[in-house]
Amino acid sequence: MKFRVSLVGAALACAAVLSACSSGASGTAAPASGAPATSSSAPSAVAPSGAASAAPTSASAKSGGDGADPKAVSWAGESCATFNGMVDRSLAMLEDVSSRMEGGDLDGYRTAVLDYLAGTGTAMAGSVKKLNELGAPTGRSAALHAEIVKFLEGAGAESAAAAKKLQGLTAADPAFAEQMAALDQGQGGSDALQKHLESAKGDPELAPAFAAAGPCREMASKSGQLPGSG
User: Fold this and answer.
1) Fewer CB atoms < 10 Å away: N or C end of the chain?
2) Distance between CA atoms of 123 and 102, rounded to whole angstroms?
3) Closest by Cα among 198, 220, 230, 228 to 84
């Protein structure tokens, strides 16, 4: 029995590109189509267990003393914090679900996934609100801003749709395993977003903001621990 969450793969792919933007390095993002699936072996890089329902941390508005525009730093930091939180919640959920499956706790498995979906929906709504309040960070980044907002809105909607389906399932149903195997959170639609993120590395105004924002530096520092980054 597997519960594939293809949004996990999309988040990992975007996080990898953001890490490259933050560090100034070139690299290939993890493929969005290969989302991790629950199995007997849990992912090695996971967030604390409480991260599954926590919203992403607020982005730092400081420029870091390198001349980066404070608004652009705030926007970059919020974007990185959002994807950091998305990846952490996803990996924590996969670890929790894997453990419950090994123990045969199907009801706990169902609850863990529902909690994850609820946390994702809440976090995406909060991030969209903050990014829309900030607006596009530079004159060249309006398309990137719009694509990130579109992606996060889609992720929230997909999480809600998956949660609605899951609420109608019961672990005692003999068909539960097959129903869970068919359940997916959606594809995430990250291809267009990744292209815009790649182009951000060449934006002379935005690249310094990614390098200066605290959440982006944090993401870059742990990029080697992300699944698919090795």
Assistant:
1) C
2) 29
3) 220
Compute φ and ψ for 117, nearest 5 degrees: -65, -40
pTM to 2 decimals? 0.73
Q: Say which residues have a Cβ less than 8 Å from residue 195's Cβ, sequence separation at least 6.
A: none
Q: Give the C-alpha separation, 100 to 83, whole Å.
A: 26
| Structure tokens belonging to residue 63 | 């420029």
Q: For residue 45, give both structure tokens.
A: 């890089």
Q: Which two tokens stand for residue 194?
A: 């990744």
User: pLDDT category, 180, cuts 50, 70, 90?
Assistant: confident
| Interval 10-31: pLDDT, tens | 777 777 777 777 765 443 333 3
Question: Would you state the pLDDT for residue 70?
Answer: 93
Amino acid at 60: S
Question: CA torsion sign, 57 to 152 to 169 to 171?
Answer: negative
Crossing angle for the helix pair 6-23 and 142-167, nearest 10 degrees? 150
What is the predicted pLDDT for the residue at 125?
Answer: 93
Supply 105's token pair: 């706790």
